[in-house]
Amino acid sequence: MRAPGLAPTANEDSPILWNASAALTAIEGIAIYAATTRGLEESGTAPSFAANANLTLPALRTRQVEAGVRWTLAKDVKLITGLFDVRRPYFELDTDNVFRVLGDVKHQGAEISLTAKPVAGLNVVAGAVLMRPRVTGEAVEQGRLGERPLGRVGTTLDLRIDYQPPAFDGLSVDLGINYTGDRAARIDNTLFIPERAIIDLGTRYRFKLGRTPAVLRAQIANLTNTFGWNVTGGGGFQFIASRRFNLSLSADF
C-alpha cells in the first residue's frame, strides 16, 4: 500500500484455504446442515492515530464451524436455528499505542431466525444472535487485557413487521425494533457502553406515475430518540444518529 507522503508498505501470504459443507433433509420440512471454513480476511492498515499508523497489517487467518436446522413449521412459517464457532486473531491498540495482534478472539453462540405470515398482508421476520465473544491469550491471562473484545455485542435481537391492509392496495406500514446488549469500550474492560433498543416506524405507498411503477417511502428512524455510542476500530467513539424523518420517491423507468 502507498499513502501520500509515506513510504510504501506491503504484506504477502499464500495459505492453503478450504471449506466443506453438507445438508440433509431428514424428514419432510426439516433440513440439517453443517459447514466448516478456513478463510483469509484483509485486515487493512493500522489507524492514523496509532504509533504504527498506516502500516499494512497481515491478512487474518480465520476458522469457522457451524451447524443447524431449517424447519418449515407451516406453509408460511419457517424457523432456522444454528450454532457457530468463529475464531480469528485479535487486532487492537496495545498500551504503547501500537495496533497489533493482542491474542485470539472467538465468537461462540447461537443464531435464530423466524419468518411468518400469520394473517393476510402481515409479514413478520424475527432474529436473534446470542453470542459469547471472548479474547484469549497471554495478555488476558496476565490481566493486561480484558476477556470481552472491544465493541463486540453479545446479544442482538431484531424484529421487523410489515402490514399491507387488504382494503388499501399499494399501502403498507412497517415497524422495526433492534436491541443490542452492552459492549466493551476499552480493551481492559474498565468501560462498557450500555444496552439499547432502536425503533423505526415507516410506511410505503406503491403507485404509478403514468405507466411507471413508483414507491413513496416515509420513515421516522430512531423513533424514541435513543442516544448511544458505537465503538470504532482502535477504541474511538461515534454517536448513533438521533431521531430523523426520511422521505424518498423511487421509480422504475
Written as H for each helix and E for each strand, in order along the chain, the element string is EEEEEEHEEEEEEEEE
Predict the CATH topology: Maltoporin, Chain A
The total of beta strands comes to 15
Main sheet summary: 11 strands, antiparallel
Please work out how many helical segments DSSP would assign: 1
What is the assigned CATH homologous superfamily? TonB-dependent receptor, beta-barrel domain
Mind telling me the C-alpha Rg? 23 Å
List the defining traits of the structure above.
single chain, 253 residues, mainly beta, Maltoporin, Chain A, two-stranded antiparallel ribbon, 15 strands, 2% helix, 59% strand
Short description:
The protein has 253 residues and is an all-beta fold. It contains 1 helix and 15 strands; from the N terminus they run ββββββαβββββββββ. It has a single domain (19-251), classed as Maltoporin, Chain A.
Please characterize this protein's 3D structure:
The protein contains one helix and 15 strands. The mean pLDDT is 89. β7 and β8 (171-180) form a beta hairpin. The protein is globular and about 65 Å long. The chain has a single domain (19-251), classed as Beta Barrel (Maltoporin, Chain A), CATH 2.40.170.20. With 253 residues, it is mostly beta strands. The strands form three sheets. Strands 1-2-3-4-5-6-7-8-11-12-15 form an eleven-stranded antiparallel β-sheet.
